[in-house]
Design a protein that fits this description.
The protein has a two-stranded antiparallel sheet with strand order 1-2. It is globular and about 80 Å long. The longest helix has 17 residues. The chain starts with 14 loop residues before the first helix and ends with a helix. With 381 residues, it is an all-alpha fold.
Length: 381
């Protein structure tokens, strides 16, 4: 059997050919030419020697059922090994295959991580997470990879705000980071901001307090201290606030409104409380009351894209098209790739009879999130 030239650096491996295939894997015996005590040229310089007793996994070319030896390539060999260790990180030969891959492709961690983050930035979250999964097989338990997984899932959850499963996956990813021993300060720091966005201020407080004890980056320590001050000064870690948030998120809006009302009696100047109140009122269809609550949140400092997006939804229901558009455009300026805001601009265009503009907004939505149900329904309906 003719193997690829180990010394050939004229045709470097690329990420995309490996990622594009999800085909069958076959195992080849090491050829006679590589058997014996002599270290393989090209790999010996990396301190690695091929073991003739261990078969080589090869991923077949797309659609193929058998291996054409004339088409055998480094990508096929590397893809086979990478997928084998990703599927069974503790497998019999997993450690050997990891060493083989790193001997041939020592920069694979940087190259694949860059590819994953680029895919996530372009909205291809499934492929981004697949790449991270492959790397986790090669580098099991590496904290940086766990953090990248959490960040990609968080970005996906932000883009697909209506999909609670994406948010739950992001939450679990951050919990895995918090469970690491020894602790991983960078993961704890990012988890704090993730919980802030979810308005889970109790867990955010714990993360920032822990980071202040463990972190060694002055700028991040300053940020953590500021977040703690905000939580404590506004009593955002109040149990009633968290209960109200959970109720509204779980479509128990009436209960949530009652709880957040109690919170606001004690903390009337906390904009987050008025936001939660408006959110619950909007869910109950109490548009005018919701508008009042969101305007109060804006007045008290809650000028966020979420506040303006929610206010716009209430204004749309009251037929205030100009007011809704103004709020959505301001929100989009603050958060230009927020799918739910762009989608709501599309819905507003539909309500006002501007079909061409609506189509443009929904096309943008699908570019950012090909699985968005509202945009898909528009083009398939």
């Amino acid at each position: 059997m003719r193997m690829p030239d180990y010394m050939n650096r004229e045709n470097p491996l690329h990420v995309q050919p490996i990622l594009n295939r999800k085909e069958k894997i076959v195992f080849l015996s090491v050829p006679e030419s590589l058997r014996g005590p002599v270290e393989t040229p090209g790999l010996a310089e990396e301190g690695f020697t091929i073991d003739p007793a261990i078969p080589i996994p090869v991923e077949l070319a797309s659609g193929a059922d058998v291996l054409n030896l004339e088409e055998l390539s480094w990508e096929m060999i590397l893809a086979g090994m990478i997928r084998v260790v990703a599927e069974d990180p503790e497998g019999t030969n997993a450690r050997y295959y990891r060493s083989f891959v790193l001997a041939v492709k020592p920069d694979i961690l940087t190259e694949f991580t860059t590819a994953a983050l680029l895919k996530a930035r372009n909205g291809d979250y499934a492929l981004a997470l697949e790449i991270i999964g492959l790397l986790e097989g090669l580098f099991p338990g590496l904290p940086g990879l766990l953090l990248n997984r959490a960040l990609i899932l968080e970005e996906q959850a932000h883009a697909r705000a209506a999909h609670t499963d994406a948010q739950d996956l992001a939450y679990k990813a951050y919990q895995a980071l918090l469970d690491l021993h020894p602790p991983f300060p960078q993961g704890i720091f990012n988890a704090g901001f993730f919980f802030m966005k979810r308005r889970n201020f109790e867990e955010a407080r714990e993360c920032f307090q822990t980071y202040l004890q463990l972190g060694d980056e002055p700028e991040k320590q300053e940020q953590a201290a500021l977040m703690l001050e905000e939580i404590q000064n506004h009593s955002l870690d109040d149990a009633m606030f968290r209960e109200a948030y959970d109720c509204i998120r779980e479509d128990k809006a009436a209960q949530g409104i009652s709880k957040i009302g109690n919170f606001l009696e004690r903390h009337p100047h906390v904009w987050n409380g008025w936001f939660l109140l408006g959110w619950g009122l909007r869910k109950l269809g109490r548009w005018d009351d919701g508008i009042g609550a969101f305007r109060k949140a804006l007045e008290l400092g809650g000028d966020t894209s979420d506040t303006r997006n929610e206010l716009a939804l209430c204004l749309m229901e009251r037929g205030d098209w100009a007011g809704a558009r103004k709020e959505l455009e301001t929100a989009l300026w603050e958060d230009p790739e927020n799918v739910k805001i762009i989608s709501n601009l599309g819905l507003l265009a539909l309500k006002t009879g501007n079909l061409q503009e609506a189509a443009g907004f929904f096309r943008t939505v699908l570019e950012l999130d090909p699985q968005d149900p509202v945009a898909q329904a528009y083009f398939n309906g």
